[in-house]
Write a structure and sequence with these properties.
Elements (H helix, E strand, L loop, with lengths): L11 H20 L3 H14 L3 E2 H6 L9 E6 L3 E6 L9 E7 L4 E12 L2 E9 L12 E8 L5 E6 L26 H4 L7 E4 L10 H14 L9 E7 L4 E3 L5 E4 L2 H16 L6 E7 L16 H12 L5 H9 L2 E5 L2 E2 L21 E4 L3 E2 L10 H13 L4 E3 L9 E2 L3 H5 L4 E6 L1 E2 L7 E4 H17 L1
Parallel strand pairs: 1-2, 4-13, 4-14, 14-20, 15-21, 16-18
Antiparallel strand pairs: 2-3, 3-13, 5-6, 5-10, 6-9, 7-8, 7-10, 11-12, 12-22, 16-20, 17-19
Length: 459
């Protein structure tokens, strides 16, 4: 059952569409390196497409009707878009759900210190990372500083050409004999992932002169005191732009493609559909990389509460109607899959792997070691999805994430399936997943966007 490589079937028109989409995708990645930045971009694009803030509609006690488009946000780190369909919402929605957080380093709340004429920022890594991949690498800092008076200062240092960059230092090879004897998990440990932040002392300062100079610079640029770190959310990410990869420019190499490649394609599909029968929803959430926890993760009540408000604004709220709406919904849990890598073939089972260039990836189940922690989609649902995609001539493949007992992973699918709705994992194959720089195929991005769009219209 080998699937056709999508590149072989493209005409000039499709290649032009593909390149335009991927150019926009690279911009999305460059400007959306944090959840807050992704939400900001999403809202900007949604407004241009006629979406209105649901909070405003609620405050003005306005009603919703078929054709209306609204969005809801929580804490600037998760967002949901709704295009109200002509059918009763009780009959269910068609949902695309992706996450917009990615593995990174987070600055701690009491981070700044000096050691031997170097200033450092203490970090705590976020999500599943190979810690040794984050050393000797140009890094940028993105995020916000919130003052006690409520003022918010946006921070972005390291991604403009004139900006300085940061790094985690590594031990030179000449002295690394003992280090190289360690297991990969111990070569660099979590407490060694501190950011080298400066080395110039403040003249005439006798104690911690480098730290004092850093604090002066922060005060001059951001009107920031050291205690303001306590109410800051600062994320350390790879510095640099998304780039075409390969001599044929067939791929994209960038930070954060897990899972912003699915967030971007979901958003583009959502904004591309106009009139729909079943209410369409695009749900972009936070905290998936650490278990979908917290107020902005999928386990929170944000999505359910927002659907309650939608039904209420439609003038017909009841608890039963909400439960029927969620049960009758259909969802693509839009998350990435591990692309087959011939350099590490022993980790994959070739017949059931996802491949570059063969289109969007559906996974009946995820999880690990006996499907633990997995959603497992119904055969009937998969059959209906196959028909939708085949009728629209979308290139797709079915795959699992690696060999049985080698590893595995999860998505937000199992959380939404608790409502009784039909859910299947679906996304883009990725090389170097969770590394600072990940790689995707342009063909897969193009096919996934088209597949998500037809799902919203036809499911």
């Amino acid at each position: 059952m080998e699937r056709q490589n999508a590149w072989k079937g493209y005409k000039q028109k499709q290649l032009k569409e593909l390149e335009a989409l991927c150019s926009e995708y690279r911009d999305f990645l460059d400007n959306g390196k944090t959840e807050r930045e992704c939400v900001k971009i999403t809202i900007e694009q949604a407004k241009k497409s006629g979406y209105k803030n649901l909070d405003t509609i609620i405050k003005k006690k306005q009603k919703l009707k078929a054709g209306d488009k609204v969005y809801a946000v929580i804490m600037d780190k998760a967002v949901a878009l709704f295009n109200i369909g002509t059918k009763d919402i009780e009959e269910g929605m068609n949902i695309l759900g992706a996450h917009i957080d990615s593995p990174r380093l987070d600055i701690k709340q009491n981070p700044l210190y000096e050691d031997t004429d170097f200033a450092y920022l203490d970090t705590h890594y976020y999500g599943g990372v190979k810690k040794y991949q984050w050393v000797a690498l140009p890094l940028a800092i993105h995020g916000v500083i919130v003052k006690k008076n409520g003022d918010t200062v946006n921070v972005s240092i390291g991604d403009n050409e004139e900006d300085p960059v940061f790094c985690v230092s590594d031990l030179l090879i000449h002295l690394a004999g003992e280090q190289l004897e360690k297991k990969a998990a111990k070569v660099i440990e979590g407490e060694q992932l501190d950011i080298l932040f400066g080395s110039r002392p403040l003249p005439d300062e006798k104690k911690d002169a480098v730290k004092a100079n850093i604090l002066k610079l922060l005060k001059d640029k951001y009107d920031m005191d050291e205690e303001d770190f306590m109410s800051a959310e600062l994320e350390v990410v790879p510095a640099g732009k998304a780039r075409n990869a390969g001599l044929d420019s067939s791929m994209i190499m960038a930070y954060g493609q897990d899972d912003r490649v699915c967030a971007f394609t979901s958003l583009k599909a959502m904004l591309s559909v106009d009139e729909v029968e079943r209410t369409a929803c695009c749900l972009l959430v936070d905290k998936e990389e650490i278990g979908s926890v917290g107020a902005t993760g999928m386990r929170s009540k944000f999505f359910e509460n927002t659907v309650c408000e939608i039904i209420d604004r439609l003038g017909e709220y009841s608890e039963l109607k909400l439960r029927r709406c969620l049960k009758n919904s259909k969802m693509l849990s839009s998350d990435v899959n591990a692309a087959y890598d011939p350099m590490f073939a022993s980790a994959f089972e070739k017949k059931n792997s996802s491949y570059f260039g063969r289109g969007m990836v559906f996974s009946k189940f995820t999880g690990s070691k006996g499907k633990s922690g997995s959603n497992d989609a119904n055969a009937e649902y998969i059959a209906s999805i196959r028909k939708i995609m085949d009728d629209a001539k979308i290139c797709y493949q079915l795959a699992e994430l690696g060999k049985v007992d080698v590893g595995g992973g999860g998505t937000i699918a199992y959380i939404l399936s608790l409502y009784g709705m039909e859910v299947i994992d679906c996304g883009v194959a990725v090389l170097n997943m969770h590394a600072p720089w990940e790689i995707t195929s342009k063909a897969d991005i193009y096919e996934t966007k088209k597949g998500y769009e037809v799902f919203l219209k036809k499911a």
